């Protein structure tokens, strides 16, 4: 019995020692291979590092986005009240504004509700001693938890996760392509190991270990790239993310590393370990059957790259279209000043400011309005005489509004102080409202509602885009006195009081803009010493509506660059595989009289066909995706053929440039030596 125990103990010791020796041998060989094939090692590590860095950056973004409200201890029991109206004459709509006494009514009517609290978000001018500034603040019930204002759209997180998976997938495919492409140089090693008794499972472990070592190296490089790219990434997404080495970050990186090692190394390990020793030693073809797979992988990489290029070009074209489109008014060289004065002072302040700057040559026009472009306008609704519900956007302005913003009058006339009834009875409408009301001759018409006081249309202006170009031009009514409309409406939605001139639009000369702004600021301090000078440029306000498009355009652009770069590395691996398998053929062709240019053309044409096929696959997919995306805009650019042709030329040029080096090198090789190859 003791002898059996000793034998078992001795066998266990031998097995442990043997296992340690095998692992040591595997690591030694892996490091030796990495060092010997430093070019391939760099390509693999750098490609995987780009994919890992992209995943870590997007992980930081998603983690931040999904962290909203997580600090609440009872977040599963917290709910926000939405009110939905579904009138028969219009589409249903929802909003979060609720009657002030709703909280008390909910607590009284529903015993399941433990507590209902109220929140109002306001922005007002705060004065302290001789200073004044605009402050955003909350009016809340005493026991309202903090942090209810932040919102997060999970859709963006999901889109970014898909982009990260695609980039990492391309990097893993690239690793597989290079590994299989180099299979011809390692088959004898596999054959010798099998002759010496190595099992298939042991070979798989060895090659997976090499992939794991590559993944660890890529992880370290990827973390360095994260630190390098994070400031630019934060600037692009308008956030302040930071990389912290906490438990969850380490867990994510470990899972990422194992995932990359498993996915990228699994097929090469199984493929290489499958070789038979007899076939290897007899110099039989060893790469047959894998060319199709490798070409398919590279084809998928380039199809994805071409699709991303098309998306990038389309988004940039749409952004240029949005920024440069004629909006129906002149947005250039207009300073928009916020007017936070009280109701009885609002118009007086505009007049004082106008009188103070009207003699200045730098100022071409001044106008006060209740709302500003690229901001919320008042929406009013009323019950028409035929029983239907009508809605329109309303703007309170002064006599100089159309001239200051250079809005064209198509029919009728502008507001005029020569007509004393204009202030209380005149309205100006846009083309869309005329069509909305089915008016053939709009001048002199009134809104078809029974409660409206006497009023009439005195002018029709050309349609102008006061909202984002995502939306079609809506019906608009411009008035001098909102009382003209307020008495007849049944519904109103507004962020700015239509009774006040909340904004002052100042058209200035394009010369010396900075000194002109200083002059406006000094004038403002003189006439409104208790109000801060808050201003913006109208063209910038309009452009800020499309920041989301700019951000996503940049994300897709970077994804395109990363994907193309990694795809080119994969293509380099495919060239390696092709040249290695056709070395004898190239030598024979040269002996039979083929020129260097004909050999280079043969190889490059083969890969050119691959890129052309990738275009055939990518074009319809990219067309479908971009067409759906453009449908979100009421005003959009055309999805023209030039974007697809440019993507094809870019991809083909990059691919041929990648192929050319190895093709020329193979074509210039000594045919005597290549005949002896293998």
Descriptive labels:
55% helix, four-stranded antiparallel beta sheet, alpha+beta, elongated, 5 domains, seven-stranded mixed beta sheet, 21 helices, 678 residues
Strand tally, please?
15
Low-confidence stretches: none
How many helices? 21
In helices, the fraction of residues equals: 55-70%
Shape, please?
elongated
Distance between the termini: 57 Å
Calculate Rg over CA atoms: 35 Å
Q: How are the strands of the largest sheet arranged?
A: 9-11-10-12-8-7-13
Summarize the main sheet. Answer: 7 strands, mixed
Structural class: alpha+beta
Taken as a percent bin, the fraction of beta residues is 5-15%
Mean pLDDT: 81
Number of domains: 5
Question: Can you describe this structure?
Answer:
- It contains 21 helices and 15 strands.
- It is an alpha+beta fold and 678 residues long.
- It folds into 5 domains: 1-36; 38-68 and 155-288, no CATH class; 77-140, no CATH class; 298-322 and 547-678, no CATH class; 341-533, no CATH class.
- The strands form 4 sheets. It has a 7-stranded mixed beta sheet with strand order 9-11-10-12-8-7-13.
Protein topology:
Layout: H1 2-36, H2 38-65, E1 83-85, E2 93-95, H3 102-109, E3 119-128, E4 131-140, H4 154-181, H5 187-195, H6 200-237, H7 247-273, H8 277-281, H9 291-324, E5 334-338, H10 346-357, E6 363-369, E7 378-383, E8 389-396, H11 401-405, E9 409-412, H12 422-425, E10 426-430, H13 431-436, E11 456-461, E12 476-479, H14 483-486, E13 491-493, E14 503-508, H15 513-527, E15 535-537, H16 538-544, H17 547-581, H18 583-591, H19 596-630, H20 641-667, H21 671-675
Parallel strand pairs: 8-12, 10-11
Antiparallel strand pairs: 1-2, 3-4, 5-14, 5-15, 6-14, 7-8, 7-13, 9-11, 10-12
């Amino acid at each position: 019995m003791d002898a059996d125990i000793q034998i078992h103990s001795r066998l266990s010791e031998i097995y442990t020692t043997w296992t340690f020796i095998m692992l040591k041998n595997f690591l030694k060989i892996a490091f030796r291979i990495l060092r010997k094939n430093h070019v391939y090692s760099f390509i693999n590590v750098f490609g995987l590092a780009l994919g890992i860095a992209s995943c870590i950056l997007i992980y930081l973004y998603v983690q931040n986005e999904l962290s909203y409200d997580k600090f609440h201890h009872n977040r599963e029991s917290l709910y926000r009240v939405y009110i939905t109206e579904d009138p028969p004459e219009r589409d249903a709509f929802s909003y979060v504004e609720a009657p002030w006494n709703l909280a008390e009514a909910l607590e009284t009517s529903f015993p399941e509700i433990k507590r209902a609290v109220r929140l109002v978000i306001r922005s007002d001018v705060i004065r302290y001693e001789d200073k004044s500034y605009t402050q955003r603040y909350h009016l809340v019930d005493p026991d309202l938890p903090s942090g209810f204002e932040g919102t997060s759209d999970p859709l963006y997180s999901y889109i970014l996760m898909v982009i990260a998976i695609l980039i990492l997938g391309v990097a893993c495919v690239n690793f597989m392509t290079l590994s299989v492409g180099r299979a011809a140089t390692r088959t004898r090693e596999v054959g010798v190991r099998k002759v010496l008794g190595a099992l298939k499972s042991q070979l798989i472990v060895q090659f997976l270990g090499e992939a794991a070592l590559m993944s660890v190296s890529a992880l370290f490089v990827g973390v360095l790239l994260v630190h390098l790219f994070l400031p630019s990434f934060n600037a692009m997404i308008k956030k302040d993310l930071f990389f912290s080495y906490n438990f969850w970050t380490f867990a994510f990186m470990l899972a990422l590393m194992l995932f990359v090692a498993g996915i990228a190394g699994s097929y090469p390990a199984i493929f290489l370990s499958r070789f038979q020793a007899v076939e290897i030693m007899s110099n039989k073809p060893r790469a047959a059957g894998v060319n199709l797979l490798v070409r398919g992988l590279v084809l998928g990489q380039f199809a994805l790259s071409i699709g991303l290029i098309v998306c990038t070009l389309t988004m940039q074209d749409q952004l240029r279209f949005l920024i440069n489109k004629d909006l129906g008014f002149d947005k250039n060289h207009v300073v928009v000043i916020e007017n936070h004065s009280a109701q009885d002072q609002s118009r007086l302040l505009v007049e004082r400011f106008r009188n103070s700057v009207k003699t200045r040559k730098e100022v071409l026009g001044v106008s006060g309005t209740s709302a500003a472009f690229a901001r919320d306008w008042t929406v009013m609704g009323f019950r028409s005489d035929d029983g239907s519900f009508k809605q329109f956007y309303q703007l309170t302005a002064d006599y100089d509004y159309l001239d200051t913003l250079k809005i064209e009058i198509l029919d009728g006339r502008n507001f005029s102080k020569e007509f004393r009834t204009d202030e209380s009875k005149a309205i100006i409408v846009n083309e869309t409202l005329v069509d909305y009301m089915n008016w053939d001759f709009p001048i002199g018409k009134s809104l078809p509602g029974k409660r409206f006081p006497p009023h009439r249309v005195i002018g029709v202006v050309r349609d102008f885009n006061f909202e984002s170009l995502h939306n079609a031009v809506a019906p608009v009514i411009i008035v001098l006195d909102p009382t003209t409309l307020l008495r007849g409406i049944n519904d109103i939605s507004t962020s700015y009081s239509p009774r006040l001139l909340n904004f002052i639009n100042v058209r200035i000369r394009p010369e010396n803009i900075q000194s002109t702004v200083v002059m406006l600021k000094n004038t403002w301090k003189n006439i409104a010493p208790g109000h801060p000078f808050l201003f913006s440029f109208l063209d910038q306000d309009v452009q800020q509506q499309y920041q989301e498009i700019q951000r996503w355009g940049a994300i897709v652009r970077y994804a395109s660059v990363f994907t193309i770069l990694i795809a080119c590395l994969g293509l380099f691996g495919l060239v390696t595989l092709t040249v290695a398998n056709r070395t004898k053929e190239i030598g024979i062709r040269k002996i039979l009289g083929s020129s260097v240019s004909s050999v280079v053309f043969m190889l490059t044409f083969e890969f050119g066909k691959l890129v052309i096929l990738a275009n055939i696959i990518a074009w319809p997919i990219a067309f479908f995706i971009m067409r759906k995306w453009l449908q979100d805009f009421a005003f959009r650019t055309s999805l023209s053929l030039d974007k697809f042709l440019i993507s094809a030329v870019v991809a083909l040029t990059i691919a041929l440039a990648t192929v050319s080096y190895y093709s020329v090198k193979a074509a210039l090789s000594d045919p005597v030596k290549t005949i002896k190859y293998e």
